[in-house]
């Protein structure tokens, strides 16, 4: 956190290298969250770049009260919500989503991993945005329920309920697909 404050201080003084360092530090995690929510890697990259353009433009007025990571995650979530509001639908066709890469060596492992990833992505896309967002923030973003609750302005029990109901729906969806 101290490193982030120093980077923001440098950025406010016009050091573009500080922006690059912040981007490099957080881009993978933020991109993963955006891609998980949108199921579209190109849209996720657009969201990530929009967030960093806005961040760089508004850094002069930024008064960070918490961690930079949580602030950037909140920005990603808000941009994703804006995209859903503008498009008036929450599901992106999975055919448009880029295949998830892996470091597996064997072709059989790659195919199995690919099918499992597709199945999970399909199941996630069927969840309501609130449940999907909570699951992704907790599992992919590594955020605690209290952090998610504070970010969303909800009670911890509401966030935990969304997580629990979302996982139950995921199990039901995946079990249904396995039986086919």
Written account of the structure:
- By secondary structure, the chain is mostly helical.
- The chain has two domains: about 90 residues, Rna Polymerase Sigma Factor, Chain: A; about 80 residues, Winged helix-like DNA-binding domain superfamily/Winged helix DNA-binding domain (Arc Repressor Mutant, subunit A, Orthogonal Bundle), CATH 1.10.10.
- The chain has eight helices and no strands.
- Helix 1 crosses helix 2, helix 2 crosses helix 4 and helix 3 packs across helix 4.
- About 10% of the residues have low confidence.
- About 75% of the residues lie in helices and about 0% in strands.
Topology (elements, then pairings):
Layout: H1 2-12, H2 16-38, H3 41-58, H4 68-87, H5 107-125, H6 129-139, H7 145-152, H8 156-179
Helix pairs in contact: 1-2, 2-3, 2-4, 3-4, 5-8, 6-8, 7-8
